[in-house]
Write a structure and sequence with these properties.
The complex is a heterodimer of chains A (about 375) and B (about 525). Chain A has about 375 residues and is mainly β. Chain A has one domain. Chain A is built from two helices and 22 strands. The longest helix of chain A has 6 residues. Chain A starts with a strand and ends with a strand. By secondary structure, chain B is mainly alpha-helical. Among the domains of chain B are: about 210 residues, Serine Threonine Protein Phosphatase 5, Tetratricopeptide repeat (Alpha Horseshoe), CATH 1.25.40; about 80 residues, no CATH class. In chain B, about 45% of the residues lie in helices and about 5% in strands. Chain B contains 20 helices and six strands. In chain B, helix 5 packs antiparallel against helix 6, helix 8 packs across helix 15 and helix 15 packs antiparallel against helix 16. The longest helix of chain B has 25 residues. The chains are: A mainly beta (about 375), B mainly alpha (about 525).
């Protein structure tokens, strides 16, 4: 498609002309993505149809995976949509539900869970590798995929705590005996020289985390009795990581979060948070590293509600066919170790799990009255 | 039994029919909008495609080359709110740029975006139904000038860059384009400029101001010639003085002498009598202007991403923080702070001094004396309250053109190239610029290169030329001048802001290749070639 936002002005009176260019690079050889899926499943119902169990094992192969993979800037326009390669997702999904009326109590419980594994089988370029997903301002290329990895994992330099003393910096040398981090001072992050070349550079980047959960699951619990109704839904996603890109890492004068009060201020004060400085010669802040990786697992109470419906004869007496009062809450409680606003990050394909200061989901508490005339 | 067989055949037929038409069913042409394949048809389409190339020439995208050049040079300090504000410029100022530097990637991105638009245009111009005599040749010449300009920005900032002169059918092909040598990039620039100079008009009517004229091509050739010749002293760059050529025509000293004489004799340009009027916001595209980057508030820009800012964003970067007592000034961010060394360069009574330098101590009751404050601000381009745009974000809409090439530069470049061969002629050109500011009594009968350098510095302060003037006189000269600019005058309270700035000669004034670009190309295709960045 042709876009017209390349504005320039000509003439003494500066007449505006909306210059045109394609909005992105075209890809005439684009093919449809195809996928084939194999499922093995069991559906079981027992105990007088009050208990049902569903098990499903699936293998889904996606070929010619459609993706907007980053291209070098020298291409000169936004990346085309390409057939990135093939990906296999496999996993096990299970659901157990129990519905039973026990006297005046009607009970409805279901638990579901899924284990998923994603693996890139092929990438259709010479490098057999895709690179993308910017981190915080000043950080580029946080996500990559290559054959054998899930489709889009975090890619950066591993860290090994904080240099407490100059002696530790002096002792951290490569094969030549030269300091691996010559610009470091005590309080700076120690980066691991994965490539063994005696310097810290892009060559030291490795997989440092994955935005994909190992397990996702939910618990739904419902009960009704004597006019009361109760319902709750708990959702869990476990085993994924978050890349915290919540600050401008090129600008050390911007505000920090409160946890930075635990920063390094002298030997022994912190082995996690580096010193805070305007002049960051060690690139503590700008380096894409596992310092920004956090456990993103969470268990969240999505919904909970409690209601009471007046007996028909009582509501009928005041001229109503039904009257229910209730109190309900959404997003009431979350168990997580993630320190950002909200561990539910999401993101597009190849841009997953990077928290660029996502607006947190609101916690909502409602009380209400349902009246039916 | 028969019935079911019939049903079976019917079902099979439907399946076959269904699968045979599925391809047409899936491949659809867009019903609205235009695509790359069907857009380029009329002369109007061609003009708008050329406009997009001009846009790449003008876009500042957080990397405006003249601003960065001044910060790097001895004319301006980085400034800003604190030592980490625009760290990409602070690192430039402190000679410690690294490959993740945002300005490095923003400038690279802007240059190649424009080169793509130019290359696409040069391919698509063949699809246009041309009816106006000479129009195709003129647009092609404009686009080649702009492509040359963008490669010139690339070669002086990165040295070794991939040369791309077409739009490849497959995006993967770009990932293998190797870096060319600086000499090869200069050769392409020469070729494009020589093509352009043969075609473009000498005089532009009022409605075409902002477009490329022949004089702009000739003046840019001179600017690049002086740089190329000067930088040939640096062995690593592999350039040869007087050997800037497209393979047929050599743009050497004799070529530039006659080209500049032609511009001067064309009488298409003249010095305007008052230096202050030159930078009057209501006097843009004046008689002295050879090429201006046009900025306006008409598009009501307001996108902080940087690509769609169509006013002069630099005006806000330059202006005073929290100004009190001078309501003509629109508050800005105090970047590119003029140095004491620049202020000291002016001779007593030179009226150019306080056009170039806005003296906040003298003109304001208070302001935020932020990082690297000297009390001076860029008086030529800083934001003015009277010119706040009519919409969008005020910072993005200052209608202040940047004077890219002006006639005084043509005269002083001509003085420089004639200095050895015809000193009298050189002095004549030089005196035209000097006496405009200082009066006839200031004329000199004989001049030296140092005289020209002094005149250039006081004439063009804050216009982004100084860095390149320094470099082309050699790395030792550059080092002396830059180190001198960091000498803090006695009694300055913020002396610490200027400490620990260690000039590094082996940057050659260049930037590292962006790290993201190295990653997104095929492995090993791009390398840091500038000595200061090898191993980063």
């Amino acid at each position: 498609m042709i876009g017209n936002s390349n504005i320039y002005y000509f003439g003494d009176s500066k007449t505006q002309y909306n210059g045109t260019q394609p909005t992105r690079i075209a890809n005439p050889s684009l093919r449809w993505e195809t996928s084939e899926q194999t499922n093995f499943g069991i559906d079981m119902t027992t105990l007088g149809s009050s208990l049902s169990v569903t098990l499903d094992y699936y293998i889904k192969k996606t070929k010619d995976w459609l993706v907007t993979a980053p291209v070098p800037m020298l291409v000169g326009n936004s990346a085309p949509i390409i057939n990135g390669g093939s990906v296999q997702n496999s996993g096990l999904e299970a659901e157990v539900s129990y519905r039973k009326e026990i006297g005046k109590l009607f009970l409805n419980v279901s638990v579901n869970g899924a284990f998923n594994k994603s693996e890139v089988l092929d990438i259709q370029n010479a490098e057999k590798r895709l690179q993308g997903g910017d981190g915080g301002f000043g950080q580029s290329g946080v996500i990559y995929a290559e054959v054998g990895t899930p489709m889009g994992v975090f890619y950066g330099i591993r860290t090994d705590g904080i240099f407490q003393t100059q002696d530790e910096i002096n002792a951290y040398v490569g094969e030549s005996g030269a300091k691996i981090q010559p610009n470091a001072v005590p309080g700076d992050i120690k980066f691991i020289d994965e490539s063994g070349d005696g310097t810290i550079s892009d060559a030291d980047r490795v997989q440092i985390g994955s935005p994909f959960p190992d397990f996702t699951g939910g618990l739904n619990l419902g009960a009704e009795s004597y006019g009361f109704d109760f319902n709750m839904f708990v959702y869990a996603a476990l085993g994924q990581e978050i890349y915290s890109a919540t600050r401008r890492y090129d600008m050390n004068g911007t505000n920090f979060t409160g946890d930075w009060l635990n920063r390094w201020t002298g030997p022994g004060t912190s082995n996690h948070y580096p010193r805070v400085t305007f002049v960051d010669n060690n690139l503590n802040q700008k380096t894409v590293s596992d310092f920004y990786i956090q456990d993103g697992s969470f268990i969240r109470l999505r919904n909970i509600s409690l209601g009471y419906t007046l007996p028909k004869n009582v509501s009928g007496a005041i001229g109503l066919s039904r009257l229910r009062i209730y109190v309900a809450a959404e997003n009431l409680y979350t168990i997580t170790r993630y320190t950002g606003y909200d561990p539910e990050i999401g993101g597009g394909v190849f841009d997953n799990g990077i928290d660029r200061g996502i607006y947190p989901q609101a916690r909502t508490v409602m009380t209400g009255l349902n009246v039916t005339f | 039994m028969k019935k079911s067989i019939l049903y079976g055949i019917f079902f099979l037929a439907v399946m076959v029919a269904g699968s045979s038409c599925s391809k047409d069913f899936l491949e659809l042409e867009p019903k609205t909008g235009q695509t790359e394949a069907n857009y380029y048809k009329t002369e109007g389409d061609a003009f708008l495609a050329v406009t997009a190339v001009y846009d790449a020439y003008a876009v500042q995208n957080w990397q405006f080359a003249p601003t960065m050049a001044d910060i790097w040079s001895d004319d301006a300090f980085c400034g800003g709110s604190d030592a980490s504000d625009m760290s990409q410029w602070q690192d430039m100022e402190s000679f410690k740029m690294e490959p993740e530097n945002n300005s490095s990637s923003d400038l690279w991105n802007r240059c190649y975006s424009g080169i793509y638009r130019a290359n696409l245009y040069l391919q698509k111009q063949e699809d246009i139904a041309w009816t106006t005599e000479g129009l195709k040749a003129r647009h092609e010449a404009e686009v080649k000038f702009l492509r040359a300009y963008l490669y010139w920005d690339l070669v002086r900032h990165y040295g070794w860059v991939p040369i791309i002169t077409e739009v490849f059918p497959n995006v993967e092909e770009y990932k293998n384009v190797p870096q060319s040598t600086p000499a090869e990039v200069f050769e392409l620039i020469a070729s494009d400029l020589l093509d352009a100079v043969a075609v473009l008009p000498v005089v532009l009517p009022s409605s075409e101001k902002g477009r490329i004229s022949k004089g702009a091509v000739q003046a840019l050739m001179a600017r690049i010639y002086l740089y190329q010749t000067g930088m040939s002293a640096i062995n690593e760059l592999g350039l040869t003085a007087e050997q800037w050529t497209d393979g047929t025509t050599t743009i050497n000293k004799a070529y530039i002498q006659s080209a500049l004489d032609e511009v001067i004799l064309s009488e298409a340009y003249s010095l305007i009598p008052s230096y202050a009027d030159l930078f009057d916001w209501d006097n843009q595209n004046n008689a002295e202007s050879v090429l201006e980057i046009q900025y306006s508030d008409k598009a009501k820009s307001g996108d902080w991403g940087g690509w769609n800012i169509n006013g002069n964003f630099a005006s806000v970067w330059y202006s005073v923080r929290n100004p009190v007592g001078d309501t003509t000034v629109f508050a800005g961010w105090s970047f590119s702070i003029p140095t004491w060394s620049l202020a000291d360069e002016f001779e007593p009574g030179d009226p150019r001094k306080y056009v170039t330098l806005y003296d906040a101590e003298a003109n304001m009751t208070n302001y935020n004396r932020a990082f690297m404050n000297t009390g001076y601000f860029n008086g030529k381009y800083m934001a003015r309250a009277a010119y706040i745009g009519s919409g969008g974000d005020a910072s993005h809409n200052f209608p202040r053109n940047h004077m890219d090439i002006r006639f005084a530069d043509v005269l002083l470049m001509a003085a420089e190239v004639w200095l050895a061969d015809n000193p009298g002629k050189a002095a004549g050109y030089y005196n035209r610029v000097r006496t405009r500011a200082l009066g006839e009594s200031a004329a000199k009968t004989s001049i030296t290169l140092d005289d020209i350098y002094h005149e250039r510095r006081v004439e063009f302060g804050g216009e982004g030329l100084r860095k390149w003037d320094l470099l082309r006189r050699g790395l030792t000269y550059t080092e002396q001048k830059i180190n001198a600019s960091f000498v803090v005058p006695a009694g300055i309270t913020n002396a610490g802001d200027f400490a620990n700035r260690n000039y590094k000669p082996n940057t050659f004034g260049m930037f590292p290749i962006p790290a993201g670009e190295i990653r997104n190309m095929n492995a090993g295709v791009l390398k840091q070639m500038v000595p200061a960045y090898i191993g980063l």
